[in-house]
Write a sequence for this structure.
């Protein structure tokens, strides 16, 4: 019996077959270049034809851009094109200078990054001084900090965590890429820290997840 062409459906069950993976790469490349912000695989997939594999296309694209002047980088769960780190000096004149953070804001940001999720009271315990609302608001405005889950303790205090925007800005893929105490001390940034003081371990399984959903 001859094959019925009407029953010859694409294997995925979609009305039309998926584009070749090479074409999917081109689509993903175009979407990322046109975006002002990093995009997650799900956000990219929502703009592609049905049946496309955004994750596979991203990985193939990442390999294709290795060693190029522009590379495909992942920060958290999102992807974006970035200038190769060793060529950043070429664009130094194009960088828009932003208002530098105050010492209080830098310390607060570091505490949140290494101890997240952390409450305002816990930040104050580490710093030894009160944290003004304006300091946290500034970090939230820059898109580097956001509200996390509320603690299941009396008063249900809010917690703070760093965002994927923080990772993207500082060229980090995850919290595990944050420099350790030894690296900071070798860079001369923590000469005042006593040698015996411990450092937070981002790989500790007891540490909460970095990007958690805040309570409604």
């Amino acid at each position: 019996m001859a094959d019925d062409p009407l029953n010859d459906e694409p294997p995925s069950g979609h009305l039309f077959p998926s584009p070749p993976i090479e074409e999917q790469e081109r689509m993903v490349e175009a979407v990322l270049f046109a975006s002002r912000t990093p995009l997650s695989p799900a956000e990219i997939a929502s703009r592609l034809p049905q049946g496309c594999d955004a994750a596979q296309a991203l990985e193939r694209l990442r390999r294709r851009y290795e060693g190029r002047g522009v590379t495909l980088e992942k920060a958290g769960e999102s992807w974006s094109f970035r200038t190769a780190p060793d060529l950043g000096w070429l664009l130094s004149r194009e960088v828009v200078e932003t208002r530098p953070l105050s010492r209080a804001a830098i310390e607060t940001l570091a505490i949140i990054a290494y101890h997240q999720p952390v409450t305002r009271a816990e930040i104050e315990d580490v710093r030894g001084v009160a944290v003004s609302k304006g300091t946290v608001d500034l970090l939230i405005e820059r898109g580097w900090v956001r509200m996390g889950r509320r603690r299941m303790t009396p008063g249900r205090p809010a917690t703070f965590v760093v965002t994927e925007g923080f990772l993207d800005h500082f060229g980090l893929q995850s919290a595990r890429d944050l420099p350790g105490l030894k690296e900071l001390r070798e860079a001369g940034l923590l000469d005042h820290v006593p040698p015996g003081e411990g450092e937070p371990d981002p790989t500790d399984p007891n540490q909460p997840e970095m990007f958690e959903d805040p309570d409604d």
